[in-house]
Specification:
Blueprint (H helix, E strand, L loop, with lengths): L16 H5 L32 E9 L2 E8 L4 E5 L9 H12 L7 H10 L9 H22 L3 H4 L7 E7 L7 H15 L3 E5 L13 H13 L4 E5 L7 H13 L4 E3 L7 H10 L4 E3 L6 H9 L5 E2 L9 H12 L4 E2 L9 H11 L7 E3 L8 E3 L6 E2 L2 E3 L8 E3 L1 H5 L2 E3 L1
Parallel strand pairs: 4-5, 4-11, 5-6, 6-7, 7-8, 8-9, 9-10
Antiparallel strand pairs: 1-2, 1-16, 2-3, 4-14, 12-15, 13-14
Helix pairs in contact: 2-4, 6-7, 8-9, 10-11
């Protein structure tokens, strides 16, 4: 079958960004019913001329992993893997709310379904990670189903492949180690994939005091001296600094050592304070890992509260919602570089986003390939080499999980 006719993303050079964002351009598709009311559907239906009715959306578990099967009435199947650590905490949201809602719906209406499940009844009152991670898991499986039916990749369904290789930054978390030991571990992780970018942790993670006294002030110049000539450097405070003054002080140290972004300097829900830090510094502020509201993302974009937006692809409810953030950011000239939780197939979902998003930024977060269950690429083999990862380009999400392995997973009811 010929490859999909790839439509350009909403923000192509031939289309004014603001016009596409606010829905003044007709695309021959029904308008999404998102709560803000400003987004055109992202899912492209060109290769899906016939309805794809969802017969079932089922949750399975084996070991510590959660597997989601989307099955159409015609017998086609798609699979995904949910968030390894948090699916269990709210699994009934999937089995009692999301699964029943999706049954009988046309999977091609995925944009509307993402919003419809949120707006139905009082579901909006559950907004937060434990609701959205369940929806993300469902969305990934439905995208896999649609891609396999259309014989194309999820990235093509979401706007078209823009990258064959995805440059990575490797994330580190050694807050309980002294600066010398931290540096040894950071260098080792960089060498493990020959990374061209890295992210270190600063501050005490939701508290100002470092676990190791003065670790932040000592570690920043050490990392810059050892790796600054080889790697792009990023830093993550994980909401450490309640004081805007302290957050700015640390930001100045990062600037002096030529770090390229400073993530979550103050508590994540301190929107005004985050903007004050951003306004006081030259280093770009990154934010959004904990956010679950399209409205608050919209506020931060419109008020230039930060310059790098980081919805977590699991925590924020999947690829469609995350790409909406990218659209809003693009209209202001900002990047959207998602946070991705470790484990499962997080690296695949990150890869799909980066493959189709025009403003995904220079490097994407990497926390390793999964070896928790047997899987294989359905397109080009997923490899990590010289600090880059192969973009998933096989049918669906780009991987198949061993069916014999899945056959022994327990169905969750």
């Amino acid at each position: 079958m010929e490859s999909i006719n790839r439509r350009s993303f909403l923000f192509s050079t031939s289309v004014p960004a603001t016009a596409a964002l606010f829905g003044t351009i007709r695309q021959g598709q029904s308008k999404s019913v998102d709560p803000i009311g400003t987004f055109k559907p992202i899912l492209q239906r060109d290769q899906l001329p016939d309805p794809v009715i969802i017969e079932s959306l089922a949750l399975h578990k084996r070991g510590g992993n959660w597997f989601i099967r989307a099955r159409s009435k015609d017998g086609a199947e798609g699979w995904s893997v949910g968030h390894p650590g948090k699916m269990e905490l709210s699994q009934q949201v999937f089995t009692k709310v999301i699964g029943p809602y999706m049954r009988g719906k046309d999977a091609r209406d995925l944009d509307q379904l993402v919003d419809g499940i949120f707006l139905r009844g009082s579901n909006y009152k559950m907004q937060g990670q434990l609701f959205w991670i369940q929806l993300a898991a469902a969305e990934f499986a439905i995208l896999d189903l649609l891609g396999k039916i259309a014989k194309t990749s999820a990235a093509d369904l979401l706007g078209g492949h823009r990258r064959k290789q995805i440059d990575l930054y490797i994330a580190n978390n050694h807050r309980n180690k002294d600066p010398k030991e931290s540096l040894i571990r950071i260098i080792k992780s960089v060498q493990s994939i020959n990374a061209k970018a890295l992210k270190i942790k600063v501050g005490g993670r939701m508290k100002v005091i470092d676990e190791i006294p003065n670790r932040t002030e000592r570690l920043i110049p050490m990392v810059a001296e050892a790796l600054g000539g080889k790697c792009t450097l990023y830093a993550d405070a994980n909401s450490s600094y309640v004081s805007v003054k302290k957050a700015i002080q640390v930001g100045k140290i990062l600037e002096a050592n030529q770090f390229a972004f400073y993530e979550e300097p103050v508590p994540f829900d301190y929107l005004e304070e985050t903007k004050r830090v951003a306004d006081a510094l030259k280093i770009p502020i990154a934010w959004g890992e904990q956010e679950s509201s399209q409205w608050r993302f919209k506020w931060m974009v419109e008020n230039s509260g930060v310059r790098i937006f980081q919805p977590d692809i699991f925590y924020y409810g999947g690829l469609i919602r995350s790409l909406r953030v990218a659209q809003m950011a693009a209209a202001k000239g900002f990047d959207c570089t998602p946070h991705i939780s470790g484990g499962g197939l997080g690296f695949i979902y990150m890869g799909i986003f980066a493959a189709c998003c025009p403003n995904s930024g220079p490097h994407q977060e990497y926390k390793g390939l999964s070896n928790d269950f047997p899987w294989e690429s359905t397109g080009d083999k997923i490899r990590v080499k010289a600090g880059s990862m192969t973009a998933p380009n096989g049918h669906g999400i780009g991987v198949n999980i061993d069916p014999d392995y899945l056959a022994k997973a327990d169905r969750i009811k």
